[in-house]
Specification:
heterotrimer, A alpha/beta (291), B alpha/beta (131), C alpha/beta (293), A: 291 residues, alpha/beta, nine-stranded mixed beta sheet, two-stranded antiparallel ribbon, 13 strands, elongated, C: 293 residues, two-stranded antiparallel sheet, 36% helix
């Protein structure tokens, strides 16, 4: 099964809109939403049944047992993250706690324990033929690379007959993006023709290149800035990166999505552009030799 | 000598695991006694620094070489400081790779990738950004 | 009354990147005349691309990282075993610190029985201050590879940047993670920017929960609005959230933005739009503080 990852660098470029269209066009039987901070894919790929849910545990967080606490203040003084406060009792602010364990170490009476902390929720949809894996990171949680890895693992943990898996990746350039990239065969970068968008695109290409993964680039809402669109296309040509197409801004796309549909479920200009991009991307993905 | 290989399942016939830091298990193989044991990779559950922890786990087993398809900068730093040789595996089973290693047919791994936070050596071509 | 309103701190948030948070923050600060703009999106600061501040002064931000005194170390390994972030590795009988992974908790120093670990400063980023016409621009930049932007945000929002006599606009990082929470701590009022789409409302819900948790008064600005009815508007009505304004989808605005131009400074119509938005925000803040001072 080949894995195609869709990444954007910056948020809001239309990555999920495109990913959902690809899933529809491919009639994909395996797909995942790795944008665990703000998952959106499920909104246009509705499943009727409830998913199988599992808790995602991040780093353990400190908890103070007020029955044992002697209020010596050692924990608060040694906490470098201002996570311990004294109101009517000593308490740890779970959002600020980084799970370092120093308070547990310095407490003279063992009143502080490091307890498992649910940092998110994993959801797996499976109906025997198709699998969709997604997750939601809880508010305030710091790390999400591990959760992204879990989402992908769960997608692969189920037996489906699928040639192609489509993964809606994380925005940004950090830890969750690296986790999204690991093990995929190809990445399609959705670029935005803006100065900040170009900047992010460069960083993603850099990172993806190190993984030895096939890379292709497309531009969404290209007509918001033709000059920058052309600049991106030239950059791709200079760096020998396949440029697979441009998608115009399309109010019909918004309407389709608001109705819970993909842009290829309706007849619209963005949908037509995406069909073309899809074909080119798939051809590259299944082409032998290139890499 | 003892060598380590990341594996997906506890089986000689299994393929080498795609990832090092988050591989579920490591196979520790002794080229002299020709015996292997698999150990759990507890680093796989780490939220961060998984490469470092995984490298520590195999180091503590007394290995002298690692066979892996890829490696991040942090794990590479740990292993290089400990003078552990790092070889690049080829697609195939663990057994095929061990045989290749023993026959001195495996190449050294030189492409080290940036880690979790994009750290490491990045010669980025900034021509496209105007910052 | 006017003087009271002047010193308010407004944090601008969105559930996801790309909704127009920077567009709104940059233009609100510009429409206000004398003001302070603080870019807390330290992993990907963009505000300075628009403001192009002058007379920029820079200060580095550091955290404390453990340093090993070889002579004192007896190889007991307690520090390596203590570190929950895996920032220490034990190689050839000595611990080695992985600075980018270290969270600066100070734990390893505490557990060392021979006092072999002390601390040194390590630069993780910087804060730049400059001027762009009447706007004082603070930019926080986290160096690539560093673990947490929280120390930078703490420096950005420290005493000297919060000028009592001027409006302060805080451009927050996207999402609802710990760095966002740090950014809104001192805000008097939160402006939530959302796109009027199905995705937009889902993302709006996340920051809505965040500001509710922190008990901050807030309102919503809908960006990239088309003529149609939209789910975000309905969400706000349901939850009784004031809609401060609607910025229509506008190709000219989009192009200006993608070229890093400040709309308020380029075209009168935008100057009027954002001035009016600012007036609405001020009225809301006043209303909120009267109700719940």
């Amino acid at each position: 099964m080949k894995q195609l990852l869709i990444l954007s660098g910056k948020g809001g470029t239309g990555k999920t809109t495109i990913a959902s269209a690809f899933i529809k066009l491919a009639n994909a039987r395996a797909y995942a939403d790795c944008d665990v901070d703000a998952p959106n894919l499920h909104l246009v790929n509705a499943w009727s049944a409830e998913p199988e849910k599992a808790d995602y545990y991040g780093l353990k967080k400190a908890v103070i047992d007020s029955d044992l606490c002697i209020e010596c203040d050692q924990c608060r003084q040694n906490c470098r993250f201002d996570a311990i406060s004294l109101t009517d009792k000593y308490e740890v602010n779970a959002y600020a706690c980084e799970g370092c364990g120093v308070c547990e170490y310095v407490c003279p009476v063992g009143a502080v324990a490091m307890a498992p902390s649910v940092d998110g929720e994993l959801m797996l949809h499976f109906d025997g033929k198709k699998v969709f894996s997604t997750a939601q990171l809880k508010m305030g949680s710091g790390t999400s690379g591990l959760l992204v890895t879990e989402v992908k693992k769960r997608m692969r943990s189920v037996e489906v007959e699928a040639e192609l898996a489509i993964i809606d990746g994380s925005p940004g350039i950090g830890c969750p993006v690296i986790a999204s990239l690991r093990g995929v065969d190809m990445v399609l970068i959705v670029a935005e023709p803006s100065i900040s968008g170009i900047n992010d695109m460069g960083r993603i290409v850099d990172t993806a290149a190190k993984f030895g993964i096939k890379i292709a680039v497309c531009i969404n809402k290209y007509d918001s800035n033709i000059e920058l669109t052309e600049k991106i296309e030239r950059w791709c040509a200079d760096h020998r990166l396949p440029f697979v197409g441009r998608i115009p801004f399309d109010p019909d796309a918004v309407r389709a999505v608001n109705a819970g549909k993909t842009i290829v479920d309706v007849d619209c200009i963005s949908g037509n552009a995406v069909r073309d991009i899809y074909q080119k991307t798939i051809d590259l993905l299944f082409e032998e030799g290139a890499g | 000598m003892k060598i380590a290989i990341p594996v997906d399942v506890k089986d000689f016939e299994s393929n080498v695991c795609e990832s090092f830091g988050r591989a579920p298990y490591f196979l520790i193989y002794d080229t002299e006694t020709k015996e292997g044991t698999t150990i759990d990779n507890t680093a796989a559950e780490s939220t961060g620094g998984a490469g470092i922890k995984a490298a520590q786990i195999i180091l503590d087993q007394g290995i002298e070489a690692l066979l892996t398809p890829r490696l991040g900068t942090n794990a590479a730093d740990v292993l290089k400081s400990a003078k552990v040789a790092i070889y690049k595996t080829m697609p195939g089973s663990v057994k095929e790779n061990i045989d290749a290693f023993v026959a001195e047919k495996l190449p050294l791994l030189d492409e080290i990738h940036g880690g979790f936070h994009g750290g490491g050596d990045r010669k980025h071509d900034n021509s496209c950004s105007e910052r | 009354m006017e003087a009271e309103i002047e010193n308010m701190i407004i944090a601008v948030l969105s559930g996801k990147g790309g909704t127009g948070k920077t567009l709104v923050s940059v233009n609100l600060a510009s429409a206000a005349g004398a003001s302070t703009y603080i870019d807390c999106d330290v992993e990907e600061p963009n505000g300075h691309l628009f403001f192009k501040p002058e007379n920029v002064q820079e200060e580095t931000v550091s955290v404390l990282i453990p340093v090993l005194d070889d002579e004192r170390c007896d190889g007991c390994r307690k520090c390596v075993d203590f570190c929950r972030f895996n920032a220490l590795a034990f190689i050839r009988n000595k611990p080695i610190v992985f600075e980018e992974i270290c969270h600066s908790c100070g734990g390893c120093m505490l557990v060392c029985p021979t006092n072999a670990l002390s601390e040194k400063e390590k630069v993780i980023g910087k804060v730049q201050v400059g001027q762009s016409d009447q706007v004082k621009v603070y930019t926080g930049i986290l160096n690539i590879g560093e673990a947490s932007g929280v120390p930078i945000i703490k420096r950005l929002l420290s005493e000297n940047s919060l000028d009592e006599r001027k409006l302060t606009v805080i451009d927050c990082p996207p999402g609802s993670s710990c760095i966002v929470m740090e950014s809104i701590k001192d805000a008097d009022y939160c402006v939530l920017v959302a796109e009027p789409t199905l995705f937009g409302v889902h993302n709006l819900n996340m920051v809505y929960e965040l500001v509710s948790l922190f008990n901050k008064p807030f309102g919503v600005i809908l960006n990239k609005c088309l003529q149609d009815e939209n789910p975000a508007e309905m969400f706000c009505i349901e939850k009784n959230i004031p809609i401060l304004g609607r910025i229509p989808y506008d190709t000219m605005l989009g192009t200006l933005n993608s070229n890093a131009k400040i709309a308020v400074r380029e075209e009168d119509q935008y100057r009027e739009m954002f001035s009016s938005l600012l007036k609405t925000v001020r009225k809301e803040v006043l209303r909120e503080t009267v109700i719940d001072p």
